Automatic annotation (TrEMBL):
<keyword id="KW-0805">Transcription regulation</keyword>
<keyword id="KW-0238">DNA-binding</keyword>
<dbReference type="InterPro" id="IPR018062">
    <property type="entry name" value="HTH_AraC-typ_CS"/>
</dbReference>
<dbReference type="GO" id="GO:0043565">
    <property type="term" value="F:sequence-specific DNA binding"/>
</dbReference>
<dbReference type="Pfam" id="PF12833">
    <property type="entry name" value="HTH_18"/>
</dbReference>
<dbReference type="GO" id="GO:0003700">
    <property type="term" value="F:DNA-binding transcription factor activity"/>
</dbReference>
<dbReference type="InterPro" id="IPR037923">
    <property type="entry name" value="HTH-like"/>
</dbReference>
<dbReference type="InterPro" id="IPR003313">
    <property type="entry name" value="AraC-bd"/>
</dbReference>
<feature type="domain" description="HTH araC/xylS-type">
    <location>
        <begin position="188"/>
        <end position="286"/>
    </location>
</feature>
<keyword id="KW-0804">Transcription</keyword>
<dbReference type="InterPro" id="IPR018060">
    <property type="entry name" value="HTH_AraC"/>
</dbReference>
<dbReference type="Pfam" id="PF02311">
    <property type="entry name" value="AraC_binding"/>
</dbReference>
<dbReference type="InterPro" id="IPR014710">
    <property type="entry name" value="RmlC-like_jellyroll"/>
</dbReference>
<dbReference type="InterPro" id="IPR009057">
    <property type="entry name" value="Homeodomain-like_sf"/>
</dbReference>
<protein>
    <submittedName>
        <fullName>AraC-type DNA-binding protein</fullName>
    </submittedName>
</protein>
<dbReference type="InterPro" id="IPR020449">
    <property type="entry name" value="Tscrpt_reg_AraC-type_HTH"/>
</dbReference>
Length: 290
């Protein structure tokens, strides 16, 4: 069973924000490789220098320099270091957002946190990375001393860091038309519906009906904004859930098929093979051998 960290600090439900240096995590783990796990809070890795791999929802990304990784609550990830890394780890919960009057809409509007699908790092140029590092140093400084408006200062620095990272992967300003805003809202609603119904609804047409739009309009908008079709996003969510069950559970293929809304295990197997490139049984075997 995959381990889920519910609190930023063990046995401390009152800690909603924390920043640590990446080197401290290596010392804390005594040099041992961490197991795949998930958090019930947000994680931002600010990587100045590293060598190894960061696995997020079964996609592997090479650790390098000037990278920012944003991991959403519930995503399975694992950092495998070949040598001690330099950088920072920022952890914050939904409670921290609420306490500091940061609307969830702010996080959703960023092109950083993704609930499913590929989660590649954002690469910053030298100047932007210097700004982010300076803000991280300020966060550590404020964390280590008690002062008035302590939490407000932390939330301000966090927002600046996220804005700096988002600007590195955002569309040029002149492209932010009203049409793009409407499209972004549609994309968020579509992803929200997928997360709610991917186990029972497997067709784009049904999602379009729920959104009171045509499937063609849904596909065109999603493809324009993300480069992937609506079906690609739906397939990605179903396949991700299947991979998690195949890797982290002992459920049979038949049980997994029914859990994900497939009436016939054979249909599930052919569907998974078409998307993932191998059968569910071969995927499970290959993951167990790693």
């Amino acid at each position: 069973m995959i381990k889920t960290y519910k609190h930023i600090e063990d046995n401390r439900e009152d800690i909603y924000f924390k920043v640590v240096r990446m080197s401290e995590l290596v010392d804390r783990n005594k040099g041992e490789k961490e197991d795949p796990h998930r958090h019930d809070y947000y994680t931002v890795l600010v990587v100045n220098k590293a060598k190894g791999v960061h696995k997020i929802d079964f996609e592997a990304y090479e650790l390098s320099e000037n990278q920012i990784y944003c991991v959403s609550p519930g995503q399975v990830h694992q950092v495998i270091e070949e040598e001690s890394s330099e950088g920072f780890v920022l952890l914050f919960s939904n409670d921290f957002l609420v306490q500091n009057h940061i609307p969830l809409r702010f996080i959703e509007d960023l092109n950083l946190f993704r609930n499913f699908g590929e989660t590649p790092p954002v690469t910053l140029d030298t100047l932007n990375m210097m700004r982010v590092n300076s803000l991280c140093e300020l966060l550590i400084d404020y964390q280590n001393r008690s002062m008035k408006f302590h939490s407000e200062a932390q939330s301000s620095f966090l927002k600046l860091i996220l804005i700096e990272c988002n600007n590195a992967c955002e569309l040029p300003t002149h492209q932010h038309t009203q049409g793009i805003e409407v499209g972004n809202t549609l994309l968020k609603n579509f992803k929200k519906l997928i997360n709610q119904h991917y186990k029972e609804i497997h067709t784009v047409n049904t999602y379009a009906e729920k959104m009171n739009i045509t499937a063609d309009h849904l596909n065109r908008t999603i493809k324009h904004l993300t480069g992937k079709t609506a079906k690609d996003h739906l397939d990605g969510r179903i396949t991700l859930a299947a991979k998690r069950l195949l890797y982290f559970s002992t459920l049979s293929l038949k049980e997994i098929a029914f859990e994900l809304g497939f009436n016939e295990p054979a249909h599930f197997s052919s569907y998974f093979k078409k998307i993932a490139g191998q059968s569910p049984s071969n995927y499970r075997k290959s993951m167990q051998e790693k």
